Every structure is written in C-alpha cells, then in structure tokens.
Amino acid sequence: MRQAGRYLPEYQRLRKKFTFWEMVTKPALASEVTLQPIERFDLDAAVIFSDIMVILHAMGYKVSFASGGPEIADPLNPADIDSLQKKIEPDRITGRLDFYADAVSQTRTALKSSKSLVGFAAAPYTLASYLLEGKTSKNHALIRALMYSDPENFKKLLNLIADASITYLNLQIDAGVNAVQLFDSWADSVPTDLYEKMILSSIYRISEAVSERVPVIFFTKGASLHRERLEQVYDHGISALSIDWRLPVDFYKDRPVQGNLDPAVLFCDPDTVREKATEILEKRGHKPGFIFNLGHGILPQARIDAVEAMVQTVRNFKP
Ligand code: CP3
Predict the structure, then answer these.
(1) Which residues does ligand 1 sit against, CB inside 6 Å?
(2) How much is the pTM?
(3) Are the CB atoms for 175 and 100 separated by under 8 Å?
(4) What's the average model confidence in pLDDT over 282-294?
C-alpha cells in the first residue's frame, strides 16, 4: 500500500522544497522518497514513489496536483473514447515515462537484494473515473452512468485503459520492479453483480498479460462487498488479493492475501496498535501466503511510534 508520504518528517522536509509532481518526475527525488520508509522502519518491500495518474500524463493529459488531489485539465468526453486509441500507443507511452524507468532502476540499484520493489497501476475502473470526472469524485457517478447507458463503450474504455496499463507495467518490470499491484480504490462504488460482470475482465486483461513476468497483487477497496465474487481472481494471474480493513483477514482461508490493518489504527497509542496487529497475525499469520499490510494507504495523521509498534509486532510474531 502507500507507505511513503506526509506522515514522515523526512518527506515533509523535501516536500517544502519541491512540488509533489517534481518529486514524482525527478528520478533521484522519487528514489529518495521511496527509500525513506525502508530506511526508517526496515520494511521488507519498497513501493516505488509515484501516482496512479502518471499513466494519464503518459497518454498526453495535463495532470496537476496543485490543489492537493489529482486533476486533469481536459477530462474525457464519453463520445471521444475512440480517440484514446492513439493516446495509448506503446511507443508514445514509454517515450513519456523515461523518468519512471530511471526512478525504478535507481531505486532497485540502491535497495538491498533481499528487499522487493513493488510497482503499481490503477485498475481500469478507478482510472476511468478520474478520466471522465477530471478529479477525485465523491460518487464516481459519470463512469457508472456510462456503464448503465452504453455498456459496450464502457467495456471499450476499460479495455483501452487496460492496454495502456500493460505497457506501463511492462516498463516498470523492464526497469526492475519485482512485483506489481493493481489498485481498485473505487471498487466499492459498483454493485457487486456488475463488478463481476462488467469490470473483473478488464483486470484480468492486465493480470494475465504480466503475471508470467512478476507476481500481481490486486487491491480492491470493497473486498467485503464483493467477497463472494473475488475468489476467481486467483485463476486469472493474480497471486494475492489485497483486502481492505472491513473484511476479516481470514475470509479466504487458504489463499494468499495481503492486508488488512485499518489505517486509522495508526493514529492510536502503541499498545492499541500492538493489540490490533496481533489480532490480524493470530488470524492469518500462521499460514503461508500472507503479507502483513494496511487495509488502505497510510494517512498523513499516522503516528511514527504507531508504525514502529506495528513493525515490531509483525517481526516478533511467532506463528
Ligand atoms: O511511495 C509510496 O508509498 C507510493 C505512493 C502512492 C501515491 N499514490 C503517492 C501520493 C501510491 C501507491 C499512490 C496511488 C494512488 N494515487 C491511488 C491508489 C491507492 C489508494 O490509496 O487508493 C489513488 C486513488 C491516487 C490518487 C491520488 N493521489 C489522490 C486521491 C491524492 C490525494 C491524496 C491525499 O491524501 O491528499 C494523491 C496525491 C498523493 N499521491 C500523495 C502521495 C504521497 C500526497 C501528495 C502530497 O501532497 O505530498
């Protein structure tokens, strides 16, 4: 999950001198920020410092973070979906992502070989919401309206985004990431029958294309809503489901899972953190195929002593 960012004083120090976009697009800065949580907490894996919106920049959209959250200047009109075809040509995308490849390879070189480097992309539905709305939406209504009114174009849009994402992830893999994660951050806004019928295939299009190269982790914020329909993902190139904090961590008994401490636990005192982390470990930590993680990205209010207590609890757990 997101592990770098504003809760870290060393991130804040850099962030005073540079914009978020500068930090993402200057490889030396992106690499430094990627390594900050590893240096401080000795975590097992680093998540390359970037953002899901970078692929839209590569497609030629003007992406900005000037007001905090992401924004694109010229959101896609559903009538223009076919125009994406030329925006997603592989050479065009890779040609605009030299900074990303450099950030990955510099970080891979700096990281000990025992530590993994994780690359990522948005899942197509989540990215499509940004593409149509131009910013983080409260209800993601535009993309669902397209799903209801014009299912064929909706599917076409998701597949075009999936194809762009395959190029984007292959570039990250070529540059040295050891695993990739797909983020379906807005999955919980979709009725569960439609999530299965209209959306999962666009995720498999990506996972099946890259899973021979590296393991694919699939985060869906909405695992509890879609729980009955998610087990099939393991048959489609996905190595592990990353589940949010609302589903019991042992729901998929014998399947590899990642998760799922509530990010809000990290606002609490260290004793509470130890108790809550131990509950997860006791439920799932004794079986293979478990990656301890948060159930969603770390929040700016997370306490450093809480993160330390979490890491210590995981390291000391004896299955
Ligand atoms: O180094 C790492 O740990 C990787 C970090 C990472 C970022 N974005 C950095 C970031 C990752 C994995 C992402 C993915 C991302 N970006 C997602 C999917 C994951 C999720 O959390 O659901 C989404 C939906 C986005 C879009 C996005 N980017 C939003 C909604 C925001 C504003 C968030 C906020 O907390 O204000 C961003 C900006 C962003 N991306 C920040 C960081 C560290 C904050 C930027 C800052 O002001 O310093």
Answers:
(1) 2-6, 15, 20, 34, 47, 49, 51-52, 65, 68-70, 120, 136, 183, 185, 296-297
(2) 0.97
(3) yes
(4) 95
